[in-house]
Write a structure and sequence with these properties.
This protein is mainly α. Among the domains are: about 5-90; about 100-250, no CATH class. About 65% of the residues lie in helices and about 0% in strands. It is built from 21 helices and no strands. Helix 8 runs parallel beside helix 10 (about 205-225). It is globular. It comes from Streptomyces scopuliridis.
Amino acid sequence: MARSRNTELASAIRETGWSQQQTAARFAEVAAENGASELLGITRSHISQWVLGTQPSGRAPHILCETLSRELRRPITPAAIGLRPESAGTNVVPEWSVDTLNELADLGRTEMERRHALTGAAYSVVGLALPGASWWDAAPERARSRKPVSQRSIGQTEVESVREMAAFFSRRDQRRGGGDGRAALVAYLRTDVAEYLNGHFPSEETRCALYTAAGELSYLSGWMAFDASQHSAAQRYFTLAIRLAAEAGNAPLEGHILRAMAHQANDLGHSAEALKLATASLERKRYSRASARERALLGVVHARTLAATKQRKDAMSALRRAESDLAAADTPADEPGRVMFFTEASLAHETACTLRDLGDLSGAQNEFIRSVRTRNAQLATRTHSVTLGYLGAVQAQQGSIEAACATWSRALDAMDGVQSGRARDTVVQMRRVLSPFRGRNITAVTELDTRARTVLSRIV
């Protein structure tokens, strides 16, 4: 059968400005970083054959996509460059076929040594596709069969170390936002945690505990990146966290991360994909095995995605279930630390967002007010400032500009020392709403707008 020239691949290489020889050299570098030793012999001749229509096999499509993505600073999929992925014919999405620990090593290097590669990369809707049931079922065995790289024996001391760091950075994120201190978390994840994961585990229980702790830390890195509006980095860390959770066999943690991915997709306007992710967070025992507090968190985000897709009845039903779940929450000692932030104030905030998206502005205002009144603002400064920002926007939508200005003034007070892209977005929205009132000599508007510009200059 005659081959057809791969014009998509030829176009992508041409866009990089590389020759085929240079493409082969860059390909080899990425293959080495990913531990793909079988691909180190790729030459200009191989690249030429691929351009002429030969389909590469094994991990070559993924490595080639990664090579081109780094240079072009946007996600490149095998289909986009005319290639069949390694997993063609199976239900495994190409992005999920990479070894977890290789991905951790590569992601750490990409962010720490070539930060622009993640900063400039685009959020990928294609990357939201989840693997099929067989991938999830096989995940624990994939981890168990992984050969340790070092002889270091990993025990409870290392597990507790990772947990302590996760707790520390989680508290910091709640107070200061995702833009403050995340580089330190990434450095710890790619060094100490990576070393632990490559060690020897004396028992399956210890391995699962360490993978769970590492998954929570990777999730936190993704959440902080999301809060800092670094959406491509957030997406990759969430995906890494999912892999670690699946390999730990921890269904509730899988649900927790899928819920965060749904939250991000919904905020970015991908409502259909967000609903799929939120629905997945409730499946495969992720909801049934979770604590009551975590079930409430999964449920209220599911409600938000239902509201975004205009499914009012189902959204309201999901809200009622989340309220019941939170009312049944256990004492803190009986629940994972990752959900302790989710309190009545958090539920009220998410409920308000759901009602707002359903067009119930009065109900949303009442819930935002309840959230503000019940939150410990000193422990959750970032979220408090965002809630106040949203409340002011709802008040403005209802024509109460004076009330909105008073609320936004409190929001700006709360943003002192906060580094958060979401907080920044509320200030941008604030100035947009105030725009028609500028130049009218309204003192409150003039003063608020001046303060808003100052705050924006501080939030990076």
